[in-house]
Amino acid sequence: xxxxxxxxxxxxxxxxxxxxxxxxxxxxxxxxxxxxxxxxxxxxxxxxxxxxxxxxxxxxxxxxxxxxxxxxxxxxxxxxxxxxxxxxxxxxxxxxxxxxxxxxxxxxxxxxxxxxxxxxxxxxxxxxxxxxxxxxxxxxxxxxxxxxxxxxxxxxxxxxxxxxxxxxxxxxxxxxxxxxxx
Length: 182
Hints:
This protein is mainly alpha-helical. The protein has a single domain (8-181), classed as Serine Threonine Protein Phosphatase 5, Tetratricopeptide repeat, CATH 1.25.40. It has helices at residues 8-17, 22-34, 38-49, 56-68, 72-84, 91-103, 107-116, 122-134, 138-147, 155-164, 166-173, and strands at residues 152-153, 180-181. It has a two-stranded parallel sheet with strand order 1-2. Helix 2 runs antiparallel to helix 3 (38-49). This is Pentatricopeptide repeat-containing protein, mitochondrial. GO terms for molecular function: RNA binding. Pfam families: PPR, PPR_2.
């Protein structure tokens, strides 16, 4: 609660007064990452792994912190840790990896992660569409969109598509289609 309100000092103090399990570590790391202190969140990762094993929620938050500061080196370190520890690439973790690589300018690595995913959700697809749009690859954003088998769009999908290639996308969306927008 204190972290969500921006009182990181109190959040840190409470952390030290409680049992330090993975849930309390995740809370503290999230507090720092969500409050604009991604470097501190990443520093806490080094402390955490000296005593506990992070879980998927921890790793997703840390990958988001890497993306905030565009640190592909720190992101690779976490990716290596994920591989070494044998974490399953669940949808949320694989999506966070793809997002981190894309935001760090490594769109090919993001696509590689995306392509390796056995299961994808709307967030996964939106990450790749926005990644291509963010890096000026509007045509690739549309190509990814066209590969999407379950055409249930959300507002973010349309936003990413329209911002990546507005004229081409508007023309394409005006065609009679079977797309459903939530």
